[in-house]
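Sanity check. The docking grid for NAP depends on where the pocket ends up, so I'm generating a full predicted complex first rather than guessing from homology. Inputs follow.
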Amino acid sequence: VGQNPPEDDPAMLEVRLRRLPRGVPLPDDFETVEAALPEPAAGQLLCRVVYLSLDPYLRGAISGRHLGHAPLRPGDVVPGRSLAQVVRSRLAGFADGDYVVAETGWREHALSAGQGARKVDPAAAPLSTALGVLGMPGLTAWAGVVELLRPRAGDTFVVSAAAGPVGSTAGQLARIAGCRVVGIAGSAEKCAHATGLFGFDACVDYKHPRWRDHLAAACPDGVDGYFDNVGGDTLQAVLEQLRPGGTVVLCGLVSQYNLDAPTGLSLGPVIARRARLLGLVVYDHEHRFAEFHTRASAWLREGRLRYLEDRATGLPSAPAHFHRLMSGQNVGKSLVVVGPESA
Ligand SMILES: NC(=O)c1ccc[n+]([C@@H]2O[C@H](COP(=O)([O-])OP(=O)(O)OC[C@H]3O[C@@H](n4cnc5c(N)ncnc54)[C@H](OP(=O)(O)O)[C@@H]3O)[C@@H](O)[C@H]2O)c1
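Predicted complex below; grid placement will be based on this.
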């Protein structure tokens, strides 16, 4: 921790970019510094961060490859969303003590003008689920499965990054729809969660040299629907096992985010199978949030929807925890516990 704020100013911590990462971001690419606690102006909220969400899209946001973000410059605070508590509201519709999901950046306290801020009912579900299974990753899974893939009972449904928040939720939604669900994940531990906690019918570890054979054995009739979170070789392998008329939702390319040059695909199988490839951007589906949230909260309470979290504690742990996420070591939704739920 470097740099002190002027004396007597109440201080807090924030994480800034030190230099643009090359490849997998390293803890050293960031620095944790003290900053003065901001004062809310009229129309603003002062929020105290409880859980900071770490998500793969931040890799693109840092480098200027995410939905029109300019690249960060050294010294910029790292962007990110949090589950936070309003400490002081000067904005109509929000009260002191309210819990919100808001863009805060990697900070202990942040101002918000309320755009994009969503209130969270602390009685409805554990607060941290607002960043995972009941939040943006959950809505992404809902959009891909319920709105785009629309699987039928008996279909074989495959999903990659199967132990992550999007993949695990997508697979469980497909199971609720009556599909045979096969996960693809990067370790035996992740596969054990997919078939145990999440109830998938099978899960294949793509780091095993014969994983394509294992996938074929797990999908003897071929693949009707594939929810792709990773791109690259995994996408290529599943395209080759699609059934005629199969559908692929392209949700993410996490195998490519740390590469300078993305690997190419060979799309012959798409033609041969008369397949459909559908791109997914979660922000197009925000208007379905209330419906998703009502259904998913009920399934969560009934135990039909489950989740895993990969937690670190204290804001200064965010850079190392982001390294862990971006090198595929996380098991479950990546988040940093920045402060207690009740102050
Ligand atoms: N389109 C949208 O609107 C939208 C919205 C939200 C998320 N997404 C995308 O959905 C995907 C899953 O996101 P998530 O939030 O659920 O996070 P996540 O699954 O926890 O993402 C990290 C996981 O990605 C996998 N991965 C595969 N190849 C990797 C590589 N080369 N390096 C690092 N990790 C690798 C790893 O799991 P394995 O070991 O199992 O491979 C890792 O644990 C991401 O691609 C994300 O960008 C898209």
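Relevant for the grid: The longest helix spans residues 136-149.
Also worth noting: The chain has a mean pLDDT of 95.
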